[in-house]
Amino acid sequence: MKMTVLIADKFPDKYIQQLTDSGLEVIYEPKTGENELAEKAKFVDILIVRSTIVNETTILSSQNLNLIVRAGAGVNNIDISAANKKGVYVANCPGKNSIAVAELAIGLIIALDRKIPHNVMDFKKGEWNKAEYSKADGLMGKTLAIVGFGNIGKEVAKRAQAFGMNIYVKDISRVEGYGIKDFSEFDKTLPIADVVSIHLPSTPETKGLFNDKLFGYMKEGAILINTSRPSVIDEDALIKAVKEKNIRVGLDVFNDEPEAKSGKISSRLQELDNVYVTHHIGASTMQAQNAVAEETVNIIMDYIKSGVIAHWVNKAKMKENYYQLVVKHYDKPGVLASILNELRTGNINVEEVENIIFDGAFVACCTMKLTSPATEEMLKNIRNNPDVLTSSHVIF
Ligand code: 3PG
After folding, report:
1. Are both 130 and 274 inside the same structural domain?
2. Do 278 and 292 have their domain in common?
3. Could you read off the pLDDT of 57-94 as tens digits, one per residue?
4. What is the pTM of this model?
5. Which residue from 76, 97, 259, 295 has its CB within 8 A of the most atoms of ligand 1, so it is best to mutate?
6. Are residue 254 and residue 347 in the same domain, yes or no?
7. What is the DSSP string of 156-173?
8. How many structural domains is the chain composed of?
9. Residue 50: exposed, middle, or buried by beta-carbon count in 10 A (0-12, 13-18, 19+)?
């Protein structure tokens, strides 16, 4: 029986064809919404989504679902804890659309500095306003604070360097090697930043990060860009900062973004003159979408051929302390079962296991990560098996 893949969002034809050519049965339903997904995904083995929400009902009611691939970076639209409960792999395509998002962030910075959208709208209305639109400051020598220095933040930094901007970054990860200054305190950097660009994932730690306090640190008239996730900004605080401090804002994401790909939109951000909102198109260049789709196909092919999941996001982190048992043995049926039986006598749980075979297929080496240590007695019994060559037991 063929494995079935449901693609629930827009996906390039070339890569749909590649999946079909590899023997998969592909169902392409790019307009699927959150509420229809459970029904459509009920009997599929693999699900590919972009921003369509994969909720608990979809995951728990699925009969065969094994792998969800997020054709993009952020996995906040997938209920990971439901996936964990059912042992469904979740993978993403990190870095593949970073350049596209960085290009949009830079575009929004320039658009705000030069008021390009206003400029164009006036022209279309038949208004000539050179006097008004000649007041832009320019970006050369301006200070840019990049909040979040992952794949996207780094691409923004490279481009801003070409504009001669003075760059500060804030991240939990290391920033060495980029010739860029780190800053640890918002209260030191936000007051000197002319432009702040946010590139953070949506996590409990980043939720509402840009609140009244952080807007309080920002310079009057500074530019704020958010092409990451809406949750990192407290929208009430943002609106207040726009009104009271003339913060100029470029957003590709905002609260209550419509799920549908087209339709009407109503948001209180529409009333604010200095807020430019784009349609969550950061990742939506053909270049980025092809790169993401190629990676998605690679993930699926690897999974089918070898069972290995690249960019597997819901793999448990190994505990700080674990016990590793390495047994070299003759490659014969029953050896592994005898080792596992021995561990079972002490109720020892094996969390990870890998068995590799040496060339010639006479000898194999099995590495097991255990939740508690094997006893001397168990190790002795394992070594006494005539099919076991050596064993070692290490505590990490
Ligand atoms: C991402 O996380 O990759 C971006 O937000 C892109 O989202 P999209 O695939 O819905 O455009």
Report:
1. yes
2. no
3. 999 999 999 999 999 999 999 999 999 999 999 999 99
4. 0.87
5. 97
6. no
7. HHHHHHHTT-EEEEE-SS
8. 3
9. buried
